[in-house]
Amino acid sequence: MLLRRLVGFRRPADEDDGEGRPYSRIRTVRWQLNLDREGRLRRLIPLTSSGESTKSGLSILVPNAGRTSGIAPALGADDAQYVLGWVDDKAKPDRVARAHEAFVELCRRWWSEHPDDTAARALVAFYDRRELPQPPEGEKWTSRDLVVVAVDGRRVTERDTLWALWETVVQERKSGVGSDGGGRRGLCLVCGQSDRPLLDRMPQSLPKTLIPRADQEVALVSANKRIHTYDFDEGLVGSPICVACGQAAVANLSAILSDSRFTFTYPRQRTRLVWWVSDGANSETIAMLDRRPEQISEYLHALATGQKHRRPDGRLTFCSATLSGNVARLVVHHWLEMPLIQAEDNVNTWFDDQQILARGREAPNAYPIWMLVLCAGQWLPDKSERGGRYIELWNKAADRPDDLAQLLLHSGLHGGTLPPHLLAHFVRRIRTDLRIDGPRAASLRVALTRHPQRTGEGPAAVLDEKQDNPAYLYGRLFAVLESLQRTAYGKDEQPNTTFFHRYFAGAVANPRVALVQGGQLYPAWLKKLDSAARDNSNNPAARQSAERAGRAARRYRARVRELQDRLTDPVAPLHNAESQSWFILGYFHQQAHDIRMARTGKAPEIPIDDLPTDDHDNTNEGTHEQ
After folding, report:
1. Which of 76, 297, 487, 552 is deepest in the core (most CB within 10 A)?
2. What is the CA 593 to chain-centroid distance, rounded?
3. 73 in Cβ contact with 120 (< 8 Å)
4. pTM higher than 0.85, yes or no?
5. Beta strands 196-197 and 41-46: pairing type?
6. What are phi and psi of 438, to 5 degrees?
7. What is the pLDDT of residue 259?
8. How many Å apart are CA 458 and CA 411, to the nearest integer?
9. Which of 589, 584, 590, 519 is nearest to 557 (CA)?
10. Residues ≥6 apart with Cβ < 8 Å to 455
11. Quick one: pLDDT at residue 250?
12. How far apart are CA 10 and CA 5, in angstroms?
């Protein structure tokens, strides 16, 4: 089914894709062999990108059909050993001589089948002169440098006759079906048509740069040894694929992998997810998984207010494949095919399950996959306005699970559960870094909501006043005690080690010590507020400050008493990642609620300048595009 969907892939209807070339690839060309119309050598020039002094070469669309250990020349552009017969220290002279001869014979066939093409005639005349240029002195070169031929100032790879012949040559090589009608023919399992020329092997490979963990160019379908097949046949005998379907499948997958709109990929993650919609349609909802947080917020707001309610055509199909490489083989971890309506509903549910009210925000928001992957890494504090940064996605020291992006994407698209080890990882990173923010809280919430052994309702997006989970109440009480200390001492009087820094990491696993100590300390903190409230100064500002301190003392006294009364049993250790996550979310929810109340004027006595906020969660730092 994957091959069938790849063959049927079409770019979005509103996109002008231009004319493609069969069995081609954009490659870096190092040299250009310039000839005149009579086949005389003008010069051999090195190619560089515009404005560059390096010798990396120029990106050009050239014939390409993959090549193993055999001799198989490409037409019009190939390695220097094929085009010019150059032999470096690593090349075998006998093999280079045979490769060059094969290239010349292919050029002669081009002229033979298209005698009116002046470029083909000039190229044959050049080889008849036997005046091959030698490697230039003072220039670095290898036998594998790519060389393109140009005749009278125009590259031969722009000739239609060249591509017509090249398509025929590749089909002959890969299927064994030649002009004499030989080779295998039969039923194609992809298109279902009979009496089709069948492939012995796929006509092209996928560049290794497009497939994570691939060491070589990757074959979409491969069975080049008897041990790889069910019936011990060689080639694709057990998987009959016609020439047209094989070419279309590889070309379309390469186009999908090369287009960032249809892929989700992140540095140091072991897989890459590609997706598309049938009939050349697109899906803004699916693409939203990788957008900026503010774009997701606008999208969710449009859904909530009814501004966006268009449903996709029920006949459209959503397809996605999670891929990686193993040496030169393609590994398909997940293949997903479902109605587009269902896929978009799954994504909307995913955003609902991970929405969280971040500190300093007015409404809950959801986060893109890349930000959830980013915040799973180590946090490095600094003196910037944000207070630090997450280690970059490409840095192996970041301590991120290699399959995190794959698990999140599959859950978001399929609607499935998330493995319990993700909770344990995020809890460990939060305790180690002493860092809890919007993306990390959202990760905990969705991992709890989609826990495979979840019982009861999952956590809410905002403070849940009716939630009686003891771990959640422990976290809320810890946040109230921390806020009380901050309010009592003020920004300039804070102790060197605050209640949070002294107790939070340990309280996540065993909150008893922190809450007992907080219970013993909080009367002194309240006493300090009560003392500030008794200020009878005639100064209006001082009198206003005293009134604010009095209201704060009453609010904190009532909140602590309420939470302590709801904890009817002794404070117990939290032995698993689920209960520890509930503690962290209770703490985070309480802080976010208090900040929102203070900003809206419903709790003005709480100085929000002293509380941490997540106002910088949406910065451009650390995106997967860096």
Report:
1. 76
2. 33
3. no
4. no
5. unpaired
6. -60, -55
7. 87
8. 16
9. 519
10. none
11. 87
12. 10
314 class by beta-carbon count within 10 Å (0-12 exposed, 13-18 middle, 19+ buried): exposed
Strand (E) or helix (H) holding 16: none
**What DSSP letter does each residue of 63-100 carry, written as one string?**
E-----SS----SSEEEHHHHT----TTS-HHHHHHHH
Q: Output the CA torsion 613→619→624→626 (10° steps).
A: -140
Sequence-distant (≥ 6) Cβ neighbours of residue 224 within 8 angstroms: 68, 201, 234, 235
Q: What is the DSSP letter of 363?
A: S
Residue with tokens 């006294």: 557
Determine contact, residues 37/122, Cβ cutoff 8 Å.
yes
Q: How far apart are CA 533 and CA 549, in angstroms?
A: 5
**What's the pLDDT tens digit per position in 381-426?**
988 878 899 999 888 888 899 889 999 999 999 988 999 999 999 9
Token pair of 234 as six digits: 């060689």
- 10 Å CB burial of residue 494 (0-12, 13-18, 19+) is middle
Average pLDDT for 192-202: 85
Structure token digits, residue 538: 């005639």
Structure tokens at 534: 């008794």
**Cβ atoms of residues 463 and 592 within 8 Å:** yes
DSSP state of 147: E
Q: How many alpha carbons lie under 13 Å from residue 35 in its C-beta half-sphere?
A: 27
Q: Which of 53, 546, 132, 618 is nearest to 370 (CA)?
A: 618
Residues forming a β-bridge with 359? none
Residue owning tokens 């014939």: 63
Do 212 and 265 meet the contact criterion of CB atoms below 8 Å apart? yes
Q: Render pLDDT for 80-122 as a digit per residue (tens, 0 to 9).
A: 999 999 999 989 999 999 999 999 999 999 999 999 999 999 9
CB-based contact 321:379 (threshold 8 Å): no
Under 8 Å between Cβ of 77 and 146: yes
Phi, psi of 332 (to 5 degrees): -100, 105
10 Å CB burial of residue 530 (0-12, 13-18, 19+) is middle
What's CA 440's distance to the chain center, in Å?
A: 18
The alpha carbon of residue 131 and the mean position of all alpha carbons in its chain are separated, in whole angstroms, by 51
Q: Where are the alpha helices (DSSP H) in 534-625?
A: 540-566, 577-599
H helices, E strands: number in the chain: 18, 15
What single string gives the DSSP state of each residue in 309-338?
-PPPPTT-EEEEEEEEEEEEEEEEEEEEEE
Q: What is residue 178's three-state secondary structure? A: coil
Tokens read off for 228: 């790889």
Q: Name the residue type at position 436.
A: I
Two structure tokens written together for 557: 């006294």
